[in-house]
Each structure stands twice: as C-alpha cells, then as structure tokens.
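Q: For a teaching session next week I want to show students how multiple molecules come together into a single three-dimensional assembly. I've collected the sequence lines for a complex. Could you give me the predicted structure tokens for the whole thing so I can convert them for display?
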Amino acid sequence: MSAIVDATGLSCPQPVILTMNEIKKIGKGEITVLVDTVTSRENVSRAAVAQGWILKSVEEEGEAFRITITKD
Amino acid sequence: MSKFVQVFATRWGIIAVGAFIGIFAQLLQKLGNPANMGVCVACFERDMAGALGLHRAAIVQYMRPEIIGFVLGSLIAAYAFKEFRARSGSAPIVRFILGAFAMIGALVFLGCPWRAALRLAGGDWNAIFGLLGLIGGIWVGTFFLKGGYNLGRSQTTHTSVGWLLPLTMLGFLVLMLVFPQVEGQEKSGVLFYSMKGPGSMHAPLIVSLPIGLIIGFLAQRSRFCTMGAIRDLVLFRQTHLLTGFVSLVVFAFLTNLALGQFHPGFANQPVAHTMGLWNFGGMVLAGLAFCLGGGCPGRQLFLSGEGDGDAAVFVMGMIVGAGIAHNFGLASSPTGVGPYGIPAVITGLLVCLFIGFTMRQKTA
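A: Of course. Below is the structure for the complete assembly, covering every listed component.
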C-alpha cells in the first residue's frame, strides 16, 4: 500500500514540496504522486531521483500523471 | 520525437537555452535595443504599458515584439508537444497584486532578473546589489513556502480561457502592423511611440519577433526560470535551473566582449542608478513577489502561453503595475529613485508579507 500525494492543480514548486515532505515523513517504501502538468511530472521525478528514490513508473491517466517512486 | 522532447529538460538542454538567450539578447542590443536591455521582461512590459497609454512617460513607449513572441512561441511549443492545458482559478487577484508589486520593485531597480543578469554581463556593477536583493527576496519567500504558503489548486477550464492572453498578444501585434511608427510622431493611431530614450531604441520587428518566438519556444520546453533558479537552490539544493541562469550570464558576457559592449563600473551605466540600497531593496520586493507568484516574469509569460490563466493574470498585474509605477513617480531614473519609490517598496513588502503569512491553505 503506497502513500498518495495528490498534487493535481498545484503549481510549481508545490508538487515537489509535497513529495519531499512525504519522503521525509516515511523515509522508505512507496509513494504515488498525482500531478497534471508535464513540468510537474519532470520536477517530481527529478527531485525524487536526487533523493535516492527509484522512479518505478509513470502512468498517464486522462489529463493527469500517476508517478510511483520507491525506496527500499 | 521523444528524444527531442526530453533534450531541453536535461542539464545541457537548459544550459543551451540560457546560452541562446544570453547571445541573442546582446545581438538584439547590437541591432537597436537599449544598452544592457537586450531582453528585459519588466522593462519591455513597461514599454508596452506606455505604448497603450497606461502611463505617459514619453521615453518608454513601445509595443515590444519580444514579449509577444515569448507568449506565442510558448503557445506553439505547448501545442506541438501536447502540453497546452487551459487552467485557472488559483487566487487570481493575489497573482494580480503580486504582479503589480513585482513590477514596481523591478522598476525601482530598473530591471527584472533577466536584465539584472544582462547588466552584470555588461559590466554594470550596480546589478550586484540587485541580484543580492533578488536572492534575499526569494530566500524570504522560501520560508513561506516551507511554512505551507500556497495559493490553492487551479482547475482545468475551457481551452479558450488559456487562449486569452496569447490572443491579446496577437492583438497587440496586429495593432503594431496597422499603426506602425511614423517618423517624428509620438502617436500612430491608438499606439504611442517614443521619439527619444530607451523606448525609441529597438531592433527591427523582422528580427525581434522571430527571436522572441524562438526564446518562447525553447523556454517552454526547458522550463527556464530565473526565480526558480535561486528558489530551487535554497529550497531543494537543486542546481538544474540555476545552470541555465548562469549560462545566460556567461554567454551574454562573452558576446558583450566580442561585440565591444562590456563597460565595467558603477557610474554612468545605461538606464541605471547608483543608489545601492534601493537597487537592493527594489529587487527584494520583486524577488519575494516572483517567489510568491511562482515564477520570474519570463516564466509567467511562458506559462501564459501554455494555458495558465493565473500566470496571465500575473502578467496583467505587471503591465498595470508599470502604469502605476510611472504615473505615481515610483519608477527610478538614471538620477536615482523616483519621488515615491521608497514608500512604494515598503508598502509592497508589507503586502507580500501579509500574503505570505495569511495564505496557507491545506492541500490534503
């Protein structure tokens, strides 16, 4: 069961801030981040990888993206 | 195609975009734009406000094609790569006020972050105070971001909402073509033109519009942002956007050397004053307002081009703010700050603090 961060409709840098807060909170495991711009998708992915998390998948859901990141 | 999509999101991609802006800004200066003002988003929006008669400062009136190109170039890129998404509704009035005060702060310094970089690259050391102020303002803004400052979610809306600012820019271009500058006249149809001063200095439309379009296209792809450059460094220790901003300064400097446009010093710099404290203070206000508004003035134009109606309101705030700045004597001149520039900066800072402290929305 992964933690979910809903960052849809939020503009830069909020999606990254919310993702980083969740990363700090759970330390390791799986997080699913919902965003709705390509920019946010890139920014969240880049920030997560910089924190040592692995980009597991990015799925397109209508106008939104579901980004799943993991860390063991 | 997908490789091309991704290349501008890489580190080398953003360095290339910064280099392009740095080089072509100086070439625009060589071709007629004002000194150390090859491309200044704040100054050029101020000139557009003058062209529309929102202020009547006779020396800064010109419908700048570069700004029109930024928005339309971004629109083209957004459609080409299926990223156009009309959205709005994230506290538009706050974005308008932030845009207006960002412009007032920028006009006390005499330039936005883009021009601060170009002034530095031209040897205007007063820009150092401006850049320090910019960093200071953004640094303050990051505390609000860490504390939960947030203007709330936008919503997907009618495609035509996202088209309104690009159409407005297209309308400005049509006005320029219908009412071109007439030698020796300060008015042509509904548009005002400058007969002397920075507003009278401009590269030919046939050059400035395409360069604006290309910069708009590239900046939309790369997410180039001069405020984000500093914010991401302070907030996340990320240097991605910063490399683009540094690249702009380095390549603008090298181009200036090659073209003989580098003149180091504090005194007698073009369209600049030497009041260090207010060069600093003006940019603290601008930096804080850009940070709370989520993007530098260029980025707000590029976002407007990809359908962000809230960024479009910020742009309108900046244009109206320029009108207020010149009508009320808030804008600086080469002799120093305007008669009411200092109280305006203090008022703007208080307004930004009010916004930062009170607008913490739960997003969960």
